[in-house]
Design the sequence.
């Protein structure tokens, strides 16, 4: 069929949604804060909203072109759509809900998603995971050319979400359809999508693989969203071939990356160790700060210390007897300190003047 091409320009409350995106036989996730325009874009592709300007094409088929007045209704677009709350018809059985998507493939979809035993049940009797499977089966029963997923895992509890995330990821890889996924959860995006676009105030701030976004976030927002520490500073030559970074927050750290001028500093939380006193190992970077918060994540604890977030084992946190408000030393190696040049937009926010710091 060919790739899905989306171009949308549409006014929102405080800014314009301006997105141009091409999606091949892959899953692309759009992540970002509420109100950034993610759902508006999804609705424009589905035909549930008409943007002020734009086009939506799939291969040679034109679904939307505001210049020529083309705007096909949703039923004329080959789209499978899974809503956030699944939007199953409560008065219909599972089998009838799936058949509503497409009768020819309803039986196949019931079997594919293990729903045969639930065919006569109504949505009110289903678990969250079962409702999600029914919604996906109904969407695929249409034999769509494009799949749209609006927060498909948001309504699930943590344990069910983990299981269905793996199942959905496998299903999407097998389908190989142009798929647009909207989510607030970076973990869902990283697990399900080939590429991730971070949508901020109507524009894609960064588009890349999960690994690319983690390794080289272009802004503090992208870094925070992916769970990576992002500091700002000015890079100057340091001792022993290292680069010294004089931080906006105060203090200096070192990196093995060769950079100069205004930079963003990327440090993964799991590269940071915490101690009550200065470490005696070879690590060059030591920042002292007070604990702002301790957040359990599975069997690990995320500890916010000054401008940093460290991720340590629950056993280590217990051994150190960490409590909010206490002062600790965060330590990380120069080799674990990545430097990225700041973009023009990033420089405009709290930018460091190298002349002043020099």
Sequence:
């Amino acid at each position: 069929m060919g790739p899905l091409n989306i171009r949308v320009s549409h006014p929102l409350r405080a800014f314009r949604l301006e997105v141009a995106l091409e999606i091949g036989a892959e899953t692309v996730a759009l992540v970002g804060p509420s109100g950034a325009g993610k759902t508006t874009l999804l609705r424009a592709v589905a035909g549930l909203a008409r943007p002020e300007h734009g086009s939506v094409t799939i291969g040679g088929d034109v679904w939307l072109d505001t210049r020529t007045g083309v705007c096909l209704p949703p039923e004329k677009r080959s789209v499978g759509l899974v809503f956030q709350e699944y939007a199953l018809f409560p008065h219909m059985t599972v089998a009838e809900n799936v058949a509503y998507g497409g009768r020819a493939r309803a039986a196949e979809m019931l079997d594919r998603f293990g729903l045969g035993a639930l065919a006569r049940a109504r949505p009110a009797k289903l678990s969250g995971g079962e409702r999600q499977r029914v919604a996906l089966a109904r969407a695929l029963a249409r034999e769509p050319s494009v799949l749209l997923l609006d927060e498909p895992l948001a309504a699930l509890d943590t344990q069910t979400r983990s299981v269905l995330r793996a199942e959905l990821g496998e299903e999407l890889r097998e389908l190989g359809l142009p798929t647009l996924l909207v989510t607030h959860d970076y973990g869902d995006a990283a697990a399900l999508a080939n590429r991730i676009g971070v949508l901020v105030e109507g524009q894609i701030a960064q588009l890349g693989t999960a690994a690319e976004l983690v390794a080289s976030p272009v802004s503090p927002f992208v870094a925070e969203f992916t769970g990576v520490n992002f500091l700002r500073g000015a890079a100057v030559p340091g001792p022993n071939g290292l680069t010294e970074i004089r931080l906006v927050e105060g203090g200096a750290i070192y990196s093995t990356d060769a950079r100069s001028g205004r930079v963003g500093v990327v440090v993964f939380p799991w590269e940071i160790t915490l101690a009550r006193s200065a470490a005696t190992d070879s690590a060059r970077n030591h920042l002292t700060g007070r604990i702002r918060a301790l957040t359990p994540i599975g069997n690990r604890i995320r500890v916010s210390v000054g401008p940093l977030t460290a991720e340590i084992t629950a056993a280590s946190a217990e051994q150190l007897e960490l409590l909010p408000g206490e002062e600790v030393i965060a330590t990380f190696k120069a080799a674990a300190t990545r430097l990225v040049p700041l973009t023009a937009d990033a420089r405009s926010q709290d930018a460091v003047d190298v002349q002043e710091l020099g």
